[in-house]
Design a protein that fits this description.
With 172 residues, the protein is α/β, with parallel strands linked by helices. The protein is built from five helices and six strands. It has one domain: Phosphoglycerate mutase-like (Rossmann fold, 3-Layer(aba) Sandwich), CATH 3.40.50.1240.
């Protein structure tokens, strides 16, 4: 039932973004990676003793599978992640469903990611899987509003129209 509601909301979001389709990506979908196996915050937040590149927890794997089911018919043509396992492993179930390859881009410079997406997929629907600090920066770089994301936020799907800067937030 939740998946059906998501598809309806996603369809409505696409209708809102239709005027911008001819000018840029029809939409960029951004999510934070799913839950980490170590339960800690993202790398670089000052947590001592945390592994630099933890894998997903069982809950994280289940969330990645749920995301793949939810986005399977969204028209995603490319999936970009950071260089870390947790982002790649969040995007891989959808990539497998769609026959795509996950493209890792260094998380150190969001502007490089945004330029790459715009250059390689100028009119496509693109999924970006990032971190609590890179997702808000990417939303802003695609013309969306300022967004705050907590270290324990795993349920948000941000849909941005780069042509208009309009953004929709969906929780799953």
């Amino acid at each position: 039932m939740k998946t059906e509601k998501f598809v309806i909301v996603l369809g409505l979001a696409l209708l809102v973004f239709v005027p911008g389709i001819a000018e840029a990506q029809s939409m960029v979908i951004l999510v934070r990676h799913a839950e980490r196996a170590d339960g800690g915050p993202s790398a670089g937040t000052g947590m001592t003793g945390a592994p630099a590149d933890p894998l997903l927890s069982a809950a994280g794997k289940a969330r990645a599978d749920k995301l793949a089911t939810m986005l399977a018919e969204s028209g995603v043509k490319a999936i970009y992640t950071s260089e870390f396992h947790r982002t790649q492993d969040t995007g891989k179930p959808l990539a497998a469903k769609l026959g795509l390859t996950v493209t890792p881009v260094a998380s150190s410079d969001v502007n490089v990611l945004v330029k790459k997406v715009k250059a390689e997929h100028p009119k496509d629907v693109v999924l970006i899987v990032g971190h609590s600090n890179t997702v808000p920066a990417a939303i802003k770089a695609f013309g969306g509003p300022d967004v705050k994301m907590a270290d324990d936020e795993y349920t948000a799907i941000y849909i941005v129209s780069p042509a208009t800067g309009a953004m929709t937030l969906i929780r799953y």
